[in-house]
Amino acid sequence: MMPKAVDALSISLMVLAAVAFSIGVFSLGNRQDLAALYWLAVGGLLLRASTDMLRPKSRK
Hints:
The protein is an all-alpha fold.
């Protein structure tokens, strides 16, 4: 049950990252530099969080 929930959360974070990147690109087109930087940074952080959740943990 838990791995499916983690997978669903990771997929939703990836979708949110794609939305944030899209908003950032749209803001760049409208010459809103500060908003574009914000949304691109948010997209990058969401994408990193999404991939870190799925990365296998090493055992010591």
